[in-house]
Write a structure and sequence with these properties.
The protein is mainly α. The chain is built from eleven helices and three strands; from the N terminus they run αααββαααααβααα. It has a three-stranded antiparallel beta sheet, with helices on one face. Helix 1 crosses helix 3 (61-86), helix 4 packs antiparallel against helix 8 and helix 8 (178-204) runs antiparallel to helix 9 (219-253).
């Protein structure tokens, strides 16, 4: 959990401007038929800088940290534990060559100490863990979106009063946008975990012939393989699920009746912007997700490998 929390903290602090700008692009009512152009993004950045200065790009970081640090910690811990349980079932398990102490053979180290599952197992584990954590922390997701927005009244309140106001509004408001969030997160996490593990398996083939799968020369090579796999998986999963992110943002930050409910919001976006409306802010979310995947999973797996290596070294001593 500490490894996951550190991962969530690092990616949040570094990449909050991407989230803020994405939310600003997605929050518009969308009545204009003019598609979003690069100039719109530049104008948005100028507006934020004029209103709050450079630190304005990190507006909502407090709410994002409250959402992402425990969220990533719970997700990665829950995912690892779930994969460990599923790895005991023949339906989802993958045969692994036993290695002394699990990390070293012939001077080479493995890229990962995470449990190995079949592609179907990875999809199910990722989707289940992500949606469960999303349900628990949905109130903070709502708060995060509203702090990043420039249209919702909450954006002008301090963090604690805004959270109190949201909780007093009741479960319906706290769970606002959960359906599109779940429709986004389940396939996103499933696709990500499956593609990430497939990328690591392909990366392991870079080892010389005869080296067991998952074994490599150095920790730096492991970090490169894990980072590249995470970047590719993040890009694939983001492009496949972005329309649900647009719908989720509009439900959480717009107050008009036409943005109440999943299908009504979808119809509104289609009416105002057409199919391109479901990809507003996609370049920002893509950049953010690729970078956060690289940072988050490199930190997470790196810390796990370090802890595991220290444990093995202690046993040998």
């Amino acid at each position: 959990m500490a490894s996951g929390a550190l991962s969530g903290f690092a990616s949040t602090v570094c990449l909050q401007p991407f989230d803020l700008l994405k939310t600003r692009l997605q929050q518009s009512d969308g009545r204009s038929k003019t598609p979003h152009r690069p100039a719109v993004l530049i104008d948005t950045i100028r507006q934020v800088l004029a209103e709050r200065g450079p630190l304005g790009l990190w507006r909502g970081t407090g709410a994002t940290l409250i959402r992402n640090v425990p969220g990533v910690a719970l997700y990665m811990t829950g995912l690892t534990q779930l994969r460990s349980l599923m790895a005991r079932a023949p339906l989802f398990s993958v045969f692994q060559i036993p290695v002394a102490d699990g990390v070293v053979l012939d001077g080479r180290k493995r890229t990962s100490v995470l449990p190995k599952l079949t592609p179907t197992g990875n999809l199910l584990a990722g989707a289940t863990a992500r949606v469960a954590v999303g349900f628990l922390l949905n109130p903070f997701s709502v708060l995060k979106a509203r702090f990043e927005s420039s249209t919702h009244p909450t954006t002008h309140l301090p963090l604690l009063p805004a959270l109190t106001r949201l909780l007093r509004a009741g479960p319906r408001e706290c769970l606002r946008g959960f359906l599109p969030s779940a429709l986004r997160d389940a396939p996103y996490a499933g696709l990500f975990v499956g593609a990430y593990e497939a990328g690591k398996r392909w990366g392991a083939t870079l080892a010389p012939p005869g080296t067991p799968a998952g074994m490599i020369h150095s920790a730096s090579t492991a970090a490169i393989i894990n980072s590249a796999s995470a970047a590719a998986a993040g890009a694939l999963a983001t492009l496949a699920t972005h329309p649900f992110d647009v719908v989720k943002t509009k439900i959480q930050v717009r107050e008009e009746a036409r943005y109440r409910g999943f299908w009504r919001t979808c119809a509104t976006v289609w009416e105002h912007r057409g199919p391109l409306g479901f990809f507003d802010g996609v370049s920002l979310r893509l950049s953010r997700k690729v970078l956060s995947s690289v940072i988050g999973w490199a930190v997470y797996e790196g810390v796990l490998l370090f802890i595991h290596d220290q444990g093995v070294a202690a046993k040998l001593l």
